[in-house]
Amino acid sequence: MKPLILINFKTYPEAIGKKALLLAQEIAKVRKKNYLIAVAPSLLTVKEIAEKTNLIVFAQHCDPVILGAHTGSISPAELKAIGVQGTILNHSERKIPFAILKETVRLCNKYKLKTIICASTIHEAKKIARLHPEYLAYEPKELIGGTISVTEAKPDTIVKAVEAVKKISPKSRVLCGAGVHTKEDIKHALLLGTEGVLIGHAVPKAKDPRKFLEELLM
Questions:
Q1: Annotated catalytic, 132?
Q2: Staple 4 to which of 25, 89, 109, 196, CB 3.0 to 4.6 Å?
Q3: Which one is catalytic: 61, 139, 188, 195?
Q4: Any bridge partners for residue 38, and if so which?
Q5: CA-to-CA distance for 158 and 143, rounded, in angstroms?
Q6: Could you read off the pLDDT of 130-145 as tens digits, one per residue?
Q7: What are the strands, taking DSSP E only, across 49-193?
């Protein structure tokens, strides 16, 4: 499969409300046959972007609940029903206790919702690999949102993370994130054995997001 490039909108001011759809539409104009491009908009804009673009859309989070009396919860079943294809889980900004994470993954599998589960350490990556997610994203917490890429600061740990995950869950695809913001970062990540990257602020905050992403994936 092609490497996955997932752009996390978080709740950056450049990627909320009406700006979210405009940003997604600009990203959708990027045509790069060698990559799968996906976005993770805020939960308040995810439905509109899923409906109005042809992008692969991931939610930023969901909860282990079926449809019913669960005020304030985000159900995998509803995400699937509105056209969302997957969800990020256990991001360093939204950690999930392992027992709850396990049940969330079970429900996501039931509703055929792809999972990207984040891990901040090799130890955590090994534990999460036992859940056999579609994707496991290795992101050292201290580098997230910064200007130094994990591929530069901790390349050896990426190799270790890939090896550890593949040993436990060979079909899980390993991604890396934290500080990824140049084409060299992406190329290095792939050379180190990952199958894609997570990108946060670099694209939403770019002066020209479409141009920036096109150059990033050259």
A1: no
A2: 196
A3: 139
A4: 6, 56
A5: 13
A6: 999 999 999 876 655 5
A7: 56-59, 86-89, 114-119, 135-138, 173-176
